[in-house]
Amino acid sequence: MQKIRVLIVDDSALVRQVLTELLTADPAIEVVGTAADPYLAREKIKTLAPDVLTLDVEMPRMDGLTFLANLMRLRPMPVVMVSSLTERGAEVTLKALELGAVDFVTKPRLGLTEGLQEYAEDLVAKVRQAAVARVSARAGGPANAGPVIRMTSLRTTDQVIAIGASTGGTEAIRAVLQVLPPDCPPVVIAQHIPAAFSASFAERLDQHSALVVCESRGNERLMAGHAYVAPGDRHLQVVCSGAHFLTRLDDGPPVNRHKPSVDVLFDSVAVACGRNAIAAILTGMGEDGARGLLAMREAGATTVAQDEASSVVWGMPGSAVRLGAADKVLPLAEVPAALVGGDKPVRSVTGVKTNNLSVR
Questions:
Q1: What is the pLDDT of residues 158-211, one digit of tens each?
Q2: Which sites are catalytic (predicted)?
Q3: Which of the four, 3, 211, 243, 261, has the lowest number of CB atoms within 10 Å?
Q4: Total-model pTM
Q5: Cα 264 from Cα 261, distance rounded (Å)
């Protein structure tokens, strides 16, 4: 197999050295060069033609966002952002994902051997996924949202919408929420994201949506027109309390290596809500959420998986489809209507067959 060619762009010589050592330890990856700023990076991209770029958020001469915007407009390629675990780092990183970055990793904890090993595994996995991710030219930001959807035929007034995602999910979830109507059923969301970033993510969704979006604090009564985002270091669950549904935060161990886990959320919604729920599993790396989506389908809920063509990485939704967990496989643009009772036709995905769903 041909190795994944990586160019590292970071103004810190130490970080460049550490990232080079961590990535080259994987036999499938070759670091073909490093650059201390975007101007040097621009020239090395031309001569080295890397498959993946790791890009620092804050750099001298030209900041990472300006460089990324230019890159995605003129020469789109997979980019993994290297971010700091700060409020400023969260805001800039979410903007980078909006501009077209595939994913991000936080700055390595230098000097902590155990932490560095865990970081290395995450870094390598995200670079590998970035190499096969779908990227396209951007004109400086996300496409304009369509009109807010008008609800048509909800099955019950007690319905709950559950959404799970990972790689590419911050933008996919934004695209869904920004066209949901302000009176839609309550939405619960599990997105793989660090604890330092989840509050900023919820605030960003709130700015782009007619819904009231917040980071869940637990024990909230689910209300129509509201969306609840799992904190980056807790599992989000839905429980039934009398005639109401409530959020619950769980500090248990990671599930499928993730906390929050989509499986944990979907499993809880299957138990608490049964057929009064609808779920969508969106773009993401790995298999988290596939079994939870199946549990929801078996409990009578309607289940949707994002199709391969519109996913940045078709790991999680692809696993759900292969497991037979999805009632519908839809492009991202058709997911919102499916969540609130729309009657958009199901678009097929090529070459996938399951026991419960046959897709041409």
A1: 799 999 999 999 999 999 999 999 999 999 999 999 999 999 999 999 999 999
A2: 166, 192, 288
A3: 243
A4: 0.88
A5: 5
Domains of the chain: 4-132 (3.40.50.2300), 160-359 (3.40.50.180)
Name the amino acid, one letter, at 142.
Answer: P
Both tokens assigned to 352: 């996938």
Exposed/middle/buried for residue 321 (C-beta within 10 Å: 0-12, 13-18, 19+): buried
pLDDT given for residue 106 in this prediction:
86
11 is catalytic: no
pLDDT tens figures, 8-31: 999 989 889 999 999 999 999 999
- Where residue 149 falls among pLDDT bands split at 50, 70, 90? confident
Q: Which residue among the candidates 250, 263, 267, 288 is catalytic per the annotation?
A: 288
Q: In the numeric block, which tokens belong to residue 273?
A: 């809500």
Is 208 noted as a catalytic residue in this protein?
Answer: no
Confidence at residue 360, expressed as pLDDT on a 0 to 100 scale:
25
Which pairing describes strands 187-191 and 160-165: parallel, antiparallel, or unpaired?
parallel
pLDDT digits (tens, 9 = 90+) for 274-310: 999 999 999 999 999 999 999 999 999 999 999 999 9
CA distances in angstroms from 156 to 11, 153, 173, 329, 343, listed in the order given: 55, 9, 23, 23, 16
Is 288 a residue of the active site? yes
Torsion, Cα of 131, 135, 139, 144 (10° steps): -140
Residue 210 Cα distances to 42, 52, 63, 145, 229, angstroms: 39, 36, 32, 12, 15
The residue from 51, 83, 103, 166 that is catalytic is 166
Residues comprising the chain, all counted: 360
Catalytic residue selected from 103, 192, 235, 263: 192
Cα–Cα distance for residue pair 266/263, rounded to 1 Å: 5
